[in-house]
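# nightly structure sweep
# worker-07 picked up a monomer target from the shared queue
# config: single-sequence mode, recycle default, output format = structure tokens
# input follows
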Amino acid sequence: MLGRTVVRCAIPVAAGALLLTGCGGGGSDAVKIAFQGPLSGDNVALGENMERGIQLAIDEANASGDYDFEIEYFPTDDAGQEGQANTAAQRAIDDPAVAAVIGPAFSGPANVAGPLFGEAGLAAVSTSATDPSLTEQGFPTFLQAVPADSLQGAAMAEFLAAQDGVETVMVVDNVTPYGEGLADVAAADLADAGIEVLRESVPEDTVDYGSAARTVVNSGADALIYAGYYAALGPFATRLQEAGFDGIGVSGDGSNDPELLNLAGGAVEGWYLTCPCTDASENQATQAFAERYEEEFGVAPGTYSAESYDATNMIIETIAELGGDPSREELYEALANAEYEGLTKTFSFTESGALANETIYFYQVEGGEIGYLGETSELVGG
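# output follows
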């Protein structure tokens, strides 16, 4: 193992210096940074959030003149599906110019692709795959650059346990590694807090959520945690409203996207959303980034946009510290031992590849918009 490397702090480039590379297009000697995630499918908006952050970091780096090498963006689409993860990962592995991968974005594909990246010696730095088991299986080159669901689920439970009148909570997962893992933690922590827990599983490809909604309402639960993605929560929340659910609704980072509002409209008004991600437009440290992002893409940064921007810069600066042409194994070792001060957080990893930072943030849908509330401790104390 290399000694711990302290990487330079993220220093934003002026907005006027952008737009040299777009999606790549550099010469054959360019160093490639791949992104594996949902660039198609029901949850494509979450992948686009991350992709744009990666693109912005690459454009700025190429425009800065600070590096003796050019960086090229290499997208590989798994649609957020485990069944497409192998093919997507192999595309990145087979291109020798790919120095590192940001992703896989979702926990299911990360669980499938992790062993492949390990065999190839290729660093896989996920800014959004939150299943705690991903760092417990010994994947040789996986780095979880996001707090795990063990923390997000605990934050959900802590928040609900602090609310007046919440005695029973229904916890619903979407029958995916992400949803089941998040639901398990939330349910266990709620039970530890003395809250009665009811548990249901509703597959994410369910066509009609009417029956599930009636089950929630008939249970008499005071609150509901939905562990899944926005594409399913939209129609589920609509059915819950129709069925007369009037309890507290909470969901996680998989639902924390403006597309949820387009799918559910007023049915998600008042819902709380958790995320191991900050609001780049609200956080002072990321406001300049958010302005450049919106100027470039015409939309505000979304869930994990800023974190993916940070991870890309961490990779670029580490490559530079290693002379611009490290082997895949050398780059992974340096990243695993790095301490990088990004715009969103300090990135450093435990021996298992888990992120040392443990901050969870809360959001709430109010007035048809997703509003930033702050860290868990700011809402419930402690």
